[in-house]
Amino acid sequence: MIKYLSFAVLIFINCLFCYKYSERYTDQYELLTLFYLIGQITIIVFINKITAFKTCQSIVINTLIIIPFFLALLSYVYISPEQLNVDRWSVINSFLTNLLNGRYPYSAISHVGNPPGPMPIYFLIALPFDFFKAYSLLSALGFIALGFFYKRFYCETYNSSYLILTIISIFMLWEIFSLSNIISFSVLVAIALLYFEKSIMKPEKRMILIVVALGLLLSTRSVYSLAYIVFFLSLIKTSSMTFLKASFLATMILAVFTLTFLPFIIFFPNEFYEINPFIIQSSFLLPAHFVPILFIIAIGFGIFAKNLSERFIYAGFTLFLSIFFYSGYMVTQHGYSNAIFESKIDVSYFLFCIPFLFIGVLEHTKHNSLLTTTSDS
């Protein structure tokens, strides 16, 4: 059931992008979205029943690797960032420009008038891409990484539906051509959590390094803390990790996360207390008093997740529902039409969940394949 709910979330996100952005080009956007919906469902129902398709598995995987790179190249050559309404590239550039010139970076303003909302490590990771103005490559890297990840660990599962739905997704075109990077950062966090789980039975030194990485990645976007909660609570509930050990590692993650703000507190103490990413995010997204509801959702999913695949899928559901809740709040504030078509809702935030669901579905299929093979033998 949760596998098909994961497909439903992906289809919903794809259709939402189709619905919103096709409205700008045709009056038949509702009909177009309906056909797109039917096409995706058809893929899920039939693609894995076609035996001959399994011989094309490597072609499909390589397509997810090649197409994003090709799109990034087109974007780099033909798209002028200054003409975009999406300002993630400009947020990065304005933040780093201020920082490198000795000014408080969180007082920077993007080319469309927005302050920088992400956490410090987000900008550190983006630094080389900003230096070469290769924002489209940063956008594409998440999709490319998913392709390599699938090829390396899940090629034997023969479950390509999620892979193909990602390849034909409108959100992939949008991410790369608008120079967004939500998928890329979410892929980093998802893969770090996967290696964290696999390091539980490994030497402590390796786990500590991964925990430090998780602390640093939390300092990209705070919303990933919801996925961390799902993982840690599930590991405790399933006795995969003791409460004491989980508490110690969680404290380490929070300590690393906190340390990333120390330079700003030391060198810009007054400015930091006036404006920082926590203040910015509570102003532009959900009010602070709604945040506990999101943590309650994460806690609930963390308690119910029983294995690795469910941890990823439930983390994806948590991120999806948190943005769904934010979207509902925006609709109540601005009305349905303004929220959707005038971009009061940033629909790209729904993409936070995609890499988690992607890996979760593959882990689920891999787990079931192993059970089938074991029972047959």
From TrEMBL:
Signal peptide: none annotated. The keyword Transferase does not apply. Keywords: Membrane, Transmembrane, Transmembrane helix. This is Glycosyltransferase RgtA/B/C/D-like domain-containing protein. The chain crosses the membrane at residues 28-47, 59-79, 121-150, 162-195, 207-236, 248-268, 288-305, 312-331, 343-362. The keyword Ubl conjugation does not apply. It comes from Nonlabens agnitus.
